[in-house]
Amino acid sequence: MVSQGSSPSLLEALNSDFLACKICLEQLQVPKTLPCLHTYCQDCLAQLAEGGHLRCPECRESVPVPPTGVAAFKTNFFVNGLLDLVKARADGDLCAGKPACALCPLMGGTSAGGPATARCLDCADDLCQACADGHRCTRQTHTHRVVDLVGYRAGFYDEEARERQAAQCPQHPGEALRFLCQPCSQLLCRECRLDPHLDHPCLPLAEAVRARKPGLEELLAGVDNNLAELEATRMMEKEALAQLREQAARVGTQVEEAAEGVLRALLAQKQEVLGQLRAHVEAAEEAARERLRELEGQEQVAREAATFARRVLGLGREAEILSLEGAIAQRLRQLQGCPWLPGPAPCLLPRLELHPGLLDENCHLLRLSFEEQQSQKDSKKDGAGSQVGDETQPQSRDGAQTPQEDGVQILKVERAESPQEDGAQTPKEDRAQTPQEDGGAQIPRGGRSNKKRKFKGRFKSVSREPSPAPGPNLEGSGLLPRPIFFCSFPTRMPGDKRSPRITGLCPFGPREILVADEQNRALKRFSLNGDYKGAVPVPEGCSPCSVAALRDAVAFSAGARLYLISPEGEVQWRRALSLSQASHAVAAMPSGDRVAVSVSGHVEVYNMEGSLATRFIPGGKANRGLRALVFLTTSPQGNFVGSDWQQNSLVVCDGLGQVIGEYRGPGLHGCQPGSVSVDKKGYIFLTLREVNKVVILDPKGSLLGDFLTAYHGLEKPRVTTMVDGRYLVVSLSNGTIHVFRVRPLDS
């Protein structure tokens, strides 16, 4: 694409895809230009027309089809002229480098004509050397430009050939268009001038172009100004988003530092604040992405129209410019009248504020407040030392933040309101109140007014709400484990024919994982650092689904069968499973010599020889047919943990099938529970794919809070596994794997 403000060259227009139809991807045939200035083949447009309208494939603008059909759209004489040059080159190439003279047969020579060595740019004929010499010696053709054929086919004379091209009248073949009828805005040849337009004022093409070209250039300059404003606004939007992320990271660090020093009673409030922060950042990023998409779309439409107009004005002949003048002017006026987006929407930046009652169990110690983002000009006035959302607070000797004045920090949260585009009234969220119910007075911060201005932003509601507050009992671990990002790597290998679809993960030796790629029918080995270690061969035609590593063997399910194979791929045994279940979850027992598989609501356990060791229904026979364990794992304590899609819950049971814990509360956000993993202390990590979360539960199935969210880079998590009891491996739907180290806060 030609850059803004520069004139395109003829070589760029001929060599680019400007002459290709964006529908059939072939060279344009009978080019027709829509009101949006996009050009397509007439036959391609006829296929898109439906119900009297068609939608432009590039800008998606709806265009009414004329009553006489798509043939009534304006013919693009500008493109036709360029196609003539391309066609002349192609015709020469078809002659295998030896084109024949076009005049020899007319003068009684050989029927095929002699070999051509020159070309007349005015007649568009190939000539032999004798005809070329005589062509310059007649009264009618002595002014014609005759050039050597090799140079013409190499493109040396394209510019000159364009200047000598004449637009032909469609009604009178052989007649060139010479006049513009001013009342009708129609191009005329001499024959057209003498018949219906005899009494109409007409202008020669050159004079008409001189009269109308300044108006088009003025409109083009206006669109160029709008493009510059759009580009500047887009850059400001990106800078605002970067500042929001930086500030969010800074506040997230503050939240972590403040939460690590408090006792177990503060954990619920910490989870609430982090969830609130993540929800705000996700909403702001979603709004920013929407604005960026809208800005880029508007910029693309305006830029394409401006590029087309600039090409016509810079390369078109008088007749071509005047034939497109109406359409170009109308489109440029339309673009100038578009309601361009204003500057970037101010972002509500989060800030962390501490309350003096740190040991008060009934007090919310951590909350977020949001304030509008300062513009670049305002931030420069405030000085380099001031940071938005980071006020300097007096600190004590040990580095802890001291309360302001009498120890009260005002805690406020203002949420943005959704725009009332459809007329529906969106309920406002009340501003969080400061703790004044016990008689405490509200104190301004730093002498400034504590009244904050609300901002009506473009935020949409986000379903990724923080999970409910965890219970106080954390099984004696002190504090909730937290994730530390370790690495990320793709699983697609050069030999893969399709994008990976990871359906199973399991630890495979020290610091190594085994990945079941159902789409490519492979069991791939990776180190925790992402190094590819090869593959475990599987029987031909098998698509591994769930996988588990046993002592010197690998168990996996494929279709309605359970396989046990050696690391070299030798099948040791296979067992048929129930056909009533689409997929069967497989898990290795802690001893490493037995494998468990979920089959139609019950669990079967096989030993290394393939014999059925035990079989039970979670909750006993009374629950027969009431459970469907889609995901299954085992804990170091020997318990079974599964995701029950029939009851939409997470269930924990012992080796005899006795249920010792089950969770189906609001922490699932109405989603079906996904993959489950258990660490060395028995904590359960449950995947919620629809809301991009991994939540953590205690060994008995009680929800403790969020462990991973979209804030940690999760996007449609699919399967998880625990390696060495302290590395959580998460696979995403796009085939990427994230590895997090699970670190207890009391370690």
Describe this protein's structure.
Residues 21-60 form the RING-type domain. Residues 227-305 form a coiled coil. Keywords: Antiviral defense, Coiled coil, Cytoplasm, Immunity, Innate immunity, Metal-binding, Phosphoprotein, Repeat, Transferase, Ubl conjugation pathway, Zinc, Zinc-finger. GO terms for molecular function: ubiquitin protein ligase activity; zinc ion binding. With 747 residues, the chain is of the alpha+beta class. Among the domains are: 8-90, Zinc/RING finger domain, C3HC4 (zinc finger) (Herpes Virus-1, 2-Layer Sandwich); 207-337, no CATH class; 482-743, TolB, C-terminal domain (Neuraminidase, 6 Propeller), CATH 2.120.10.30. 25% of the residues lie in helices and 24% in strands. Strands 14-37-36-35 form a four-stranded antiparallel β-sheet, with no helix packed on it. It has a four-stranded antiparallel β-sheet with strand order 15-16-17-18, with no helix packed on it. Helix 8 runs antiparallel to helix 9 and helix 9 runs antiparallel to helix 10. The radius of gyration is 37 Å and the shape is elongated. Mean pLDDT is 76; it is low at 1-7, 383-467 and 469-478.
Helix and strand topology:
Layout: H1 10-15, E1 31-33, E2 39-41, H2 42-48, E3 53-55, E4 62-64, E5 74-75, H3 77-94, E6 118-120, E7 125-127, H4 129-135, E8 146-148, H5 149-153, H6 158-164, E9 179-181, E10 186-188, H7 190-194, E11 202-204, H8 205-260, H9 267-315, H10 318-336, E12 348-354, E13 366-372, H11 376-382, E14 482-490, E15 502-507, E16 512-517, E17 522-527, E18 532-536, E19 547-550, E20 553-558, E21 561-565, E22 571-576, E23 586-588, E24 594-599, E25 602-607, E26 612-616, E27 629-634, E28 640-644, E29 649-653, E30 659-663, E31 676-678, E32 684-688, E33 693-697, E34 703-708, E35 717-723, E36 727-732, E37 736-743
Antiparallel strand pairs: 1-2, 1-5, 3-4, 6-7, 6-8, 9-10, 9-11, 12-13, 14-37, 15-16, 16-17, 17-18, 19-20, 20-21, 21-22, 23-24, 24-25, 25-26, 27-28, 28-29, 29-30, 31-32, 32-33, 33-34, 35-36, 36-37
Helix pairs in contact: 8-9, 8-10, 9-10
